[in-house]
Amino acid sequence: MPASPESVAPLRPLARGAVLAAAFLGLLFDGVELGLMPVASLSVSQSLLGDAYTKELGGQWFAWFTAALMLGAAVGGVVLGNLGDRIGRSRAMGVSILFYSVCAALGGFVTSQEQMLALRFLVGLGVGGMWPNGIALVAESWPNASKPTVSGVMAAGLNTGILLLAQLARIWPLTPDSWRWVFQLAGAPALLGVIVLLALPESPQWLAMHRRRLAGGASTRAHAPIRSLFSAGLIGITLAAILVSGIPMVGAWSASKWMVPWADKVGGGTHAAYKAITQGWWAAGSIIGSFIGAQLAGWLGRRRSYFLISVGATLATLAMFTLTAPLEATFLPVVFVQGVISTLFFGWLAVYLPELFPVTMRATGAGLAYNAGRFLTAAGVLASGWLFTAFGADYARVGAVLSLVYALGMVVIWFAPAQERAD
User: Which residues on neighbouring strands pair with residue 178, listed in sequence order?
Assistant: First the structure.
């Protein structure tokens, strides 16, 4: 007979540390991928389009690249999140890291915008799969640790990657003549993917679930039932989780991220590194925000904290696009504050989503909820590209109008579950 679930011992301290380090690094390099096109997009487009490049086309391609990444992440989050429930968190995490690393590196060899667009979708598959598997693996490997603290560390990993990329681009500015190196460098985490795939310990809770399946005669490849997330008992939770995840992502990618090409347009002519400096200020704030957001979820309660974050993100984003502008003395400090407030959401989500779903479908549920919002984000980004053209390439107007997306969170959160699941 297979071993009983009770025979699965908790991970030892060294193994738990390895899990936390690997997941943090996986999310850090995830953040590099998320921050890559905001600083590289206009240089890529100018290089590949040549004389056909215009400011309007540059903005449209930025929207399309972002939408492709978000669409890929949405698909990857669901598919690779489900894979984590089937074959294990650590193995699915290794697959995700390999996917985004290899496909990112190929971006350094493209010869057309269409090739880059296809690769950004493929990178998105791995980006989407990393978050649910990494968060589930850490949550299950550190069951007695403070959820807000561990979740805050994990959420900060994403934004540490964005900050790291910004510093590299500040030292070696990305220009139409020099941008391929950053994509080739983004392939380096493939080594981490191989190590995770072959050597990282598995979640004890997943192993216990796997043994229960075997003890009951189930196939070792029995998969978590995605349809069950829309059953009578879970459909309300699943839909609420999708909405509370989608609002901050639509706000971030449809509104906030326009600050980087805006900074490039205004300041890039005299200061090639200004876009990287702008993203660096935002990323520095976002590391603080993503960590504190997890703490707020514990201090103020899930609903109240999300409501207050929604209020703050709306006001901060409006201020960034209406009360200041690139090269003004107040611009970078406001960008920093907006980074702090708008990323409080993601620390909050790292605490909230895993606790909603049972262990048998935790990675599937968290992955679906977090990444289904990216389907909405892809649509929102395409709409922002249309607005960009309609507003005559006015970055500030586009950002200001779409910042109101954050205000929807003030309403939606009161329809979401307030308490964590009791397993």
Answer: 175
Tens-place pLDDT, residues 196-211: 999 999 888 888 877 8
24 within a domain of the structure (yes/no): yes
CATH number (domain holding residue 195): 1.20.1250.20
Q: Which residue spans within 236-326 are E strands per DSSP?
A: none
223, 82 contact by CB (below 8 A): yes
Lowest mean pLDDT among 16-30, 110-124, 349-363: 349-363
What is the identity of the amino acid at 412? V
399, 262 contact by CB (below 8 A): yes
Condensed to tens digits (0 to 9), the pLDDT of residues 220-265 reads 444 555 677 777 677 878 888 888 888 998 888 778 878 888 898 8
Residue 271 forms part of a structural domain = yes
What pLDDT score was predicted for residue 147? 65
Q: Which amino acid is at 72?
A: G
Instruction: Report, in angstroms and rounded to the nearest whole number, the Rg of the chain calculated over CA atoms.
Output: 21
3-state secondary structure at position 144: coil
CA atoms of 53 and 68, how far apart (whole Å):
20
Q: Which residue segment(s) compose the domain that 36 sits in?
A: 12-211+224-415
Residue 1 within a domain: no
What's the average model confidence in pLDDT over 146-166?
77
Integer Cα distance of 101 and 187 in angstroms: 4
- Residue 165 falls within a domain, yes or no? yes
Q: 314, 404 in Cβ contact below 8 A?
A: yes
What pLDDT does 106 receive? 96
User: Exposure of 153 by Cβ count < 10 A (0-12 exposed, 13-18 middle, 19+ buried)?
Assistant: buried
Query: Which long-range contacts (C-beta less than 8 Å, at least 24 apart) are formed by 50-55?
Result: 55/265, 55/393
How many structural domains compose the chain?
1
In order of 56, 158, 189, the CA distances from 31 in angstroms are: 27, 4, 12
Compare 325 and 214 and report the one with higher pLDDT.
325
How large is the average pLDDT for residues 109-137? Answer: 92
